[in-house]
Amino acid sequence: SAVISQKPSRDICQRGTSLTIQCQVDSQVTMMFWYRQQPGQSLTLIATANQGSEATYESGFVIDKFPISRPNLTFSTLTVSNMSPEDSSIYLCSVGQRDAKNIQYFGAGTRLSVL
Amino acid sequence: DAKTTQPNSMESNEEEPVHLPCNHSTISGTDYIHWYRQLPSQGPEYVIHGLTSNVNNRMASLAIAEDRKSSTLILHRATLRDAAVYYCILRAVIQGAQKLVFGQGTRLTINP
Predict the structure, then answer these.
(1) Contact A10, A110 (CB under 8 A)
(2) Alpha-carbon distance A24 to A72, whole Å?
(3) Judging by beta carbons within 10 Å of its beta carbon (0-12, 13-18, 19+), is residue A55 exposed, middle or buried?
């Protein structure tokens, strides 16, 4: 298993500003992911954070809006840029190992409200 | 992407068994069936997974149909702490990357 720490746990931001969310894992992992969970909805994968290279984004998500960094095997950041009220969601970091089980472990999430 | 279909909600009583169904008729031969659950105000947590054979662990059992087009998560004796949204997910390998694609899940309510 893996213990994931996400910061901040929640924030209230003004329209047009940006927020960077941090994800720290207690062990080295091969895979790190970022998900969004809009109010009352299921989880949607934003991107896979690749160590040492650009993140791989899912359809509908772009790097300019959600830049991601992954400088090493235990840390990643997601920035939500130029925020609007539609970005109000829970953002979750998830990690896993590249093996047959593909079990993913999730952080508690960052609850973002944009005014 | 391979899709799963689950009932939106289910209700059960405490200390009774719960059977949560999932249909995945388009499953491919290499897709694992994963179950996660999300307790209120928490991130999802892994419950169980399987490929072809039934699986048991300390949390639950997973019964997989012989044709693999459906599966059932079994909670043998539900407690109030099992109230959560349960997600049945097919682990998909898309463009060489392993991904978990979440559906809408089943919201399980446990009555005391």
Answers:
(1) yes
(2) 10
(3) buried
Instruction: Write out the two tokens for B50.
Output: 């399987």
Q: By a Cβ cutoff of 8 Å, what residues of chain A touch chain B?
A: 4, 31, 33, 35, 41-45, 48, 56, 92, 94, 96, 98, 100-109
Beta strands, E only, chain A = 4-7, 10-13, 19-25, 31-37, 43-49, 56-57, 68-72, 75-80, 89-96, 104-106, 110-114
State pLDDT tens for residues B8-48.
999 999 999 999 999 999 898 888 899 999 999 899 999 99
Which residue of chain A has the CA closest to B47? A103
Do B102 and A106 make contact, defined as CB atoms within 8 angstroms? Answer: no
Q: Which residues of A touch B103 (CB under 8 A)?
A: 42
Taking residue A2's Cβ as centre, other Cβ atoms within 10 Å add up to 18
Over the stretch B63-83, which tens digit does the pLDDT of each residue have?
999 999 999 999 999 999 999
Say yes or no for a CB contact (<8 Å) between A42 and B46: no
Q: What is the three-class DSSP state of A50? A: coil
